[in-house]
Amino acid sequence: MPKRKEYRYVGPASILASLPIPSQRIQVTSAHDVQQWIESTRQPTENDGSVVATFIVDTSGVLWVSDRRSEHVLCAAGQNVLSAGEMSFVNDKPHVYVESVTNQSTGYCPEPESWPIVAMALTDSQIEHPAFFTTAFIFRRCSVCQTTNIVKDLWFECAVCGATLSLHWNFDTTDEET
Q1: Quick one: pLDDT at residue 14?
Q2: In this structure, are 80 and 28 located in the same domain?
Q3: CA atoms of 115 and 5, how far apart (whole Å)
Q4: Does residue 32 sit in the same domain as residue 120?
């Protein structure tokens, strides 16, 4: 059983306050669910034929997807998640598989270590997928200016104010602890 760390929403309060109810998300339990969602919502395809979706894995380990342009917190119905990001599905009827998957979510800032939870949700849904995040992001909050940063090339420096960023995930800590 993979480690289960819950991530709370850490994005702008204005987005959380403006959540429409109900959400336009679907629970994924099979490749057929993905196919139906792509077709019924007429999801746009990329140049390579894939469909990119916003995804979350809820605290029960269930995979949910919504339109790529929707916020992760909306896909999560405002709740905590075990992971979040973007997934590219290939709908090669009757076969559906995940071509790429990232943890790109500045609303939840999940760690790359959340991958096993995503893999388990996809495996449980019998959807073929990569062996890891195809692109993994490292997020840190600046303790000086509070900016959410994406760490690039392991350079732990705030892109806004230049302060040194924590080496450890720090969205659940107070400023004094970072």
Answers
A1: 87
A2: yes
A3: 11
A4: yes
Residues 103, 109, 111, 112: what is their CA dihedral angle, to the nearest 10 degrees?
20
In angstroms, rounded to a whole number, what is the distance separating the alpha carbons of residues 117 and 106? 18
Predicted TM-score (pTM) of this structure: 0.91
Does position 22 have pLDDT exceeding 80, yes or no?
no
User: Which residue among 102, 124, 146 closes a domain?
Assistant: 124
Q: Is residue 1 part of a domain?
A: no
| Nearest residue to 143 (alpha-carbon basis) of 126, 127, 128, 160 | 160
In the structure encoding, which two tokens stand for residue 162, read together?
A: 């230049």
Assigned domain for 161 exists: yes
Tally of domains within the chain: 2
At residue 127, what are phi and psi to the nearest 5 degrees? Answer: -110, 125
Residue 138 pLDDT grade (very low, low, confident, very high; cuts 50, 70, 90): very high
Domain that holds residue 80: 13-124
Q: Which residues pair with 27 in a beta bridge?
A: 64
Reply yes or no on whether the pLDDT at 167 is more than 50. yes
Confidence of residue 119 (pLDDT cuts 50, 70, 90): very high
159 plus 74 within the same structural domain: no
Across all residues in the chain, what is the average pLDDT? 92
